[in-house]
From TrEMBL:
<dbReference type="GO" id="GO:0005856">
    <property type="term" value="C:cytoskeleton"/>
</dbReference>
<dbReference type="GO" id="GO:0030837">
    <property type="term" value="P:negative regulation of actin filament polymerization"/>
</dbReference>
<keyword id="KW-0528">Neurotoxin</keyword>
<keyword id="KW-0800">Toxin</keyword>
<dbReference type="InterPro" id="IPR036770">
    <property type="entry name" value="Ankyrin_rpt-contain_sf"/>
</dbReference>
<keyword id="KW-0638">Presynaptic neurotoxin</keyword>
<dbReference type="GO" id="GO:0044231">
    <property type="term" value="C:host cell presynaptic membrane"/>
</dbReference>
<keyword id="KW-1052">Target cell membrane</keyword>
<feature type="repeat" description="ANK">
    <location>
        <begin position="273"/>
        <end position="294"/>
    </location>
</feature>
<keyword id="KW-0268">Exocytosis</keyword>
<keyword id="KW-0472">Membrane</keyword>
<dbReference type="Pfam" id="PF12796">
    <property type="entry name" value="Ank_2"/>
</dbReference>
<protein>
    <submittedName>
        <fullName>Uncharacterized protein</fullName>
    </submittedName>
</protein>
<keyword id="KW-1053">Target membrane</keyword>
<feature type="repeat" description="ANK">
    <location>
        <begin position="168"/>
        <end position="190"/>
    </location>
</feature>
<feature type="region of interest" description="Disordered">
    <location>
        <begin position="334"/>
        <end position="379"/>
    </location>
</feature>
<dbReference type="GO" id="GO:0005737">
    <property type="term" value="C:cytoplasm"/>
</dbReference>
């Protein structure tokens, strides 16, 4: 026997009861299923000076956890794209289809929407979408099938679901890039509805999180390039003012640093502590990243942080003599030709969508007590 359920479509009694019970449970809790992995409890990133000991774990594991919070661990990352097997199709369940109809009807005619039915539908869709798209081992084939199912209703519905955020403001692409699941990232970008500039509640975009991931092959590189072309690579995290370039420089991601510079990342942007990407790389002794930043025609070597230290002084204090020598040589001799010299022409001929950040004033060195505090903290 079938009857019209709460979602306005004909369902059997069993299905109708199931969806109503599930919906009631969600509404009573007023949160997502606690079993759903979320990028929760994201603490403030440590200062540049406090992160003086680089980790040897893959992807800077400890520092990545500071950015991402609690995530599923020990799930192998995908290194090669999966072949698409069209013989196996993953359809939406009846309950999810019913919920999609309610949400899509609301998007088409908001004035006719029932608030209670809408809330139930959104909660059910959100729970199912994150169940499929957020795990570290999310199957790109399943994700694509679900997106195809959503698009059968409308592009508006697909846009709404793909950009749904959990209680911490993280979307599916936040999860995919943090896990290094570039197959899923590529599928989300292919949809052309994914908001790559959306910040979570901690202020991090997916472009910042992908700066910690390891680029293992040309496929990964192409996906990251696409990602950087679609958003503002100079967006600052709200907690500490860091950019994707600073994060990549701190964690030794040379390939990502190069891709960011090619995409228009500004090397002189300073975070809340006055640090630049060059200072971050210098402190950690990432000499090849320092070399890449020095090759950029706009990189300023005389900028100082809030302690009054330049990148050269920071490299010396951290004991990275080779890095310090490279910076010293660059500041006292001609830099020569640069692979990024064409950026000057591009900047003068291509209008910006947003004005470049103003260069911070070159503050004089602080009194000697402040310098002694930095010196004592480094021993």
């Amino acid at each position: 026997m079938s009857r019209s359920g709460s979602f306005g479509v004909n369902l059997c009694d069993k299905c109708n009861n199931e969806i109503e019970n599930v919906a009631k449970d969600f509404i009573d809790k007023n949160v997502l299923d606690p079993a759903l992995p979320t990028l929760s409890r994201i603490p403030k990133l440590a200062s540049r000076a406090a992160r003086s000991r680089p980790t040897s774990a893959p992807m800077g594991y400890e520092n990545r956890q500071v950015l991402l919070g609690s995530l599923e661990k020990d799930v192998p990352e995908r290194s090669e794209p999966r072949a698409r097997d069209r013989a196996e199709k993953h359809d939406l369940t009846k309950e999810v289809k019913a919920a999609c109809k309610v949400l899509n009807d609301y998007l088409m005619k908001p004035e006719r929407g029932d608030p209670n039915k809408l809330k139930t539908a959104v909660t059910l869709i959100q729970q199912e979408w994150f169940r499929v798209g957020s795990p570290a081992n999310a199957d790109p084939n399943v994700v694509e099938d679900y997106m195809d199912g959503f698009e059968e209703y409308s592009r508006h519905l697909l846009h709404r679901i793909v950009n749904m955020a959990d209680i911490n403001g993280n979307t599916a692409i936040h999860y995919a890039v943090s896990h290094g699941n570039f197959d899923v990232v590529s599928i989300l970008l292919d949809s052309k509805v994914c908001d790559v500039s959306k910040q979570n509640k901690a202020g991090y975009t997916c472009m910042m999180l992908v700066s910690l991931a390891e680029i293992k092959n040309d496929t990964h590189r192409h996906v990251v390039q696409r990602l950087f072309q679609l958003g503002d690579v100079n967006t600052k995290a709200t907690q500490n003012g860091q950019t994707a370039l600073m994060l990549a420089a701190s964690h030794g991601r040379l390939e990502t640093v190069k891709l960011l510079l090619e995409a228009g990342a500004e090397p002189n942007v300073q975070d809340n502590e006055g640090s630049t990407a060059l200072m971050c790389a210098a402190e950690h002794g990432h000499i090849e990243i320092v070399r890449a930043l020095l090759a950029h025609p706009d990189t300023e070597l005389s900028l100082v942080d809030n302690d009054g230290s330049t990148a050269l002084q920071i490299a010396m204090e951290a004991g990275h003599k080779d890095t310090a020598l490279l910076i010293y040589a660059s500041s006292n001799f001609s830099r020569g030709s640069s692979p990024y010299s064409s950026l000057r022409i591009r900047k003068s001929t291509t209008p910006r969508s947003t004005p470049p950040p103003s260069r911070p004033p070159r503050t004089p060195p602080p009194p000697s007590p402040a310098r002694s505090r930095r010196s004592s903290s480094s021993h």
